[in-house]
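ok so for the tutorial part 2 we go from a plain amino acid sequence to predicted structure tokens. step 1 is just haveing the sequence, like this:
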Amino acid sequence: MSNEGPVEVFARPRLTSPPPAVLDIVFVHGLGGDQFETWRSSEKESWLQWLATDFPTCRIFTVGYDSSKFASVLSGDGASIQDLALIMADGLASREERAPHTLLVAHSLGGLIVKQMLRRCSESLSPDFIEIGRSVTGVAFLATPHQGAQAAKTLDFLLRQFLSKQSKQLAYGDDNLVDLNDSFRSWVARQGVAVRAYFETEKTYGVHVVDKVTANPGVSGCEPIGVQTDHITICKPATRTAPVFKSISAFIRQLLKKITPPTAEIGAASADQPEPSGGGQAAIASEDAPTELNSEILSDFQYYMTHADVDRRDLEQKLADAGRTYAVADAKRKKERFNMTLQRHIAQPSAVARYAKLMADVESRFNRHVVREIAHGADIAAVDRVVQEHVVEPCVLAHSTSEGQITAGLVDGALYYLAGNCHLAWDNV
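step 2 — the prediction. this is what the tokens look like for a chain of 429 residues:
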């Protein structure tokens, strides 16, 4: 596998006097992929060349890395994923010329390296790395597994495919994925970066590798889009009418409108390209930005979706320590249902605001009424009574509207979701 730094891909025919670049678009392949072949559906050309032709004010780069080293990292033998991330950041920083803005496009597990690179850049004291992080205005994930046990299983499947007959235990598991994605979500909220995510609808080797749930980065305004292809070909659109090509092109136009003056001539070569219309796959790309959210509400929403640092026990352990082992199965089910509800509505600003307010109210009422009972050693029945009277019932009344009824089950789900993310404690620990 190629492990070269960023290599520019040029239009065909190559422009003799290209205009100044305002956006660098950087492509990062996945495990077992290749710097060039990953993006190619035929020997003649790839869609990266089409983008270079259609967007003369953008420069297209493809990054390569050693997949065997990445596999070693994930299976526990390599140094660290941070090393690969810094190598990539250094390659991007070492280019002679850099556009003021950057769009990152990653396939499969390449998205993990991208997220780690952004994390390291945000934490770095190096001016070059800080600038690379600050330049990123958009990230697109093509079938990247992001969070939770399902993502860890996906990662394990891809690793075992790459390592062939080797039987290695996955080292980069649930906790690492959750931590990395929490960091990414916080970074997106701070930077105001636009995020797109895609997942395949067809099976690969008999397995649905990345589905709608696994592909969801949990970022406000990003709703994963299904593409009728498999995990390998999702990054190889064969024609200009392919949904992924049209969608990424629309995403680029959206970013260019944000980062360049209205009088600038942007993507002139693509101006005559027909826009997606109708439904289904043809409507994969929507350039309508979601309604602006109040910054405090958005901050609250991101806070509740992120694991707090105060108590890293998982939900099952917290309930067991509180003498509530009997409730574990029901709690996990309600927590997961609430999480699915959040993810399903995360691209809808009004729903984000509604659930942020609900979670804030649940946390406030729990801390005001329930924590005191727990601290005073009240038994489980007494604590449950306070939860019902001072949290569940008031929240059902306060947050039910003519558009939608809030149920006691949903409030229960919010309670367990917040406990699982370490914002509520059912014991005195």
